[in-house]
Please model this.
Amino acid sequence: NEQVQKEMGRQVSESAADLGPSKAGLDSDIGNWFTDAMRRQSGADVAFQNTAGIRSDMKAGKITVRDVFQVMPFENTLVKLTLTGEQIRRLMADNTQGEKGFSKLQVSGLKVTLRAPYGDPAGVTLERGGKPVADTDKFSVATNNYLTTGGTGGRVFNEDKNAEDTMIPIRDLLMKDIAANPVKTLPAGGRIIRAD
Model:
């Protein structure tokens, strides 16, 4: 359909940097951009997105509707909830895979340090703004409805019984965010590190 093709080719923004995956299996440039956009658009303290749900990288140059669709082809919506530091440590442990300690989540608003054996919350430490996060600290969190409705690794999200599905497609938020904030430089990295 010609109308659809025209809309898909419409330029929404531009990027000065290539945003790609993480070879180390930690935070990625595309994941950092994606979660920063979710956090900016939701006003949450922290944002999480499953790494596997980010389906494409984004090349420098003009950014079209199609580019954003390729990064986020799913109809997932934004969910807002509240989690404690202790819950986030368990969440990150649940989403750290295998002996290599690959992270199945991307994050904005926190720095996460992982220690072997991976998958144990005791080996996860969190910092926010350079300060250690206590287990009792509370954060407003933005994530997607795949993770809050039984998606892989989302168990901890179900603990907040007051979670609110905004019904706003995450893709729409990404589109809105990149239109308002063209990518000038790579988002700050080193958000998820291994302490070995």
Q: What stands out?
A: The first strand starts at residue 11 and ends at 15.
